[in-house]
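Annex B. Sample input.
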Amino acid sequence: MKVTKLLLALFTAVALTSCNFTEEIYVNNDGGGKFSIQLDGSQLAAMAGKEMQNDPQAGKVIDSTFSFKELFAAKEDSIAKLPTDEQERLRKLENYTVSMKMNAAEQQMLFTMATDFKNIGELEDAWSAMSGMSALDKGMGKTNPMAQAGGIGNNNSLLKYSYDGKKFSRKATLLKKETAETENDSLGEAFNMIYESSTYTVKYHFPKKVKKVSNASAMLSSDKKTVTVEYPFMDYMKEPEKLNFDVEFEK
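Annex B, continued. Sample output.
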C-alpha cells in the first residue's frame, strides 16, 4: 500500500473518533534530544475491531516507518510550484520521521512523528508546520491525507521551548486571536465532539531532578526527572496558552 493511502486511512479514522495525543520530549544535558507527537486511536480500533478484521483492506496489519523527506521527494515538482513561504513551511518537516502501526486484531492504531534536535530552542511546533501540508492539495488532490492531519492539530499558535539547565519553559502564543476564534467557532458539531472527548498529554524527560513546576496539575515520576501533564484537547485547540508552564530544576 502506498504511503499516501496509509496516511489517508489513518487520518480518516482519527477524524471519526476521539483520540489521545501525546507530545513527548527527551532533553539531554547538552540541550539536545528527541521530540515526538503520538496519536493513539486504539479506542477506534477497539470499537471497530470486528468490522476492521473482516475488511481485507482495513484489517491489514501495518507497521511502516518513513520520512517526510522521502514523501516530499516524490512530490518535488508540485512543491516547486508553491509560493516560497509555503515551501519553507513544508521544509520544516523534512527531518521528521513517521511511524504507523495498525493492527485490528490487537486493537492497535498508533501514529508517531519524531525528530532529533541539537538545541531545543530551534524545535519547531510540529502541528503548526504540519498545517502547511494543506498546500499540497493542488499536487495530490483528494489523496492528500496530510491536509486532514493539519486540520486536526492546527490551533493557530506559535509554540516555543527553552532550556538552560536551570529552567525549562513551554510557551504557546496565539498568532491571530480573532481568526482562531472564528475558525474554532465554525468547527462542525462532529469535530467539537471529537475534541471534547480527546486528551492532549505532554510528557517531558529531563537529565536533572525537578524542583518545581508552575502547573499544579503536573505529575512527577518517582525519580523526579519526568513531568507529565494531561489537558482536555479542546484547551489545546481553543486556548493553547493554558498549556504553558515552567519547570525549575534542583541544583
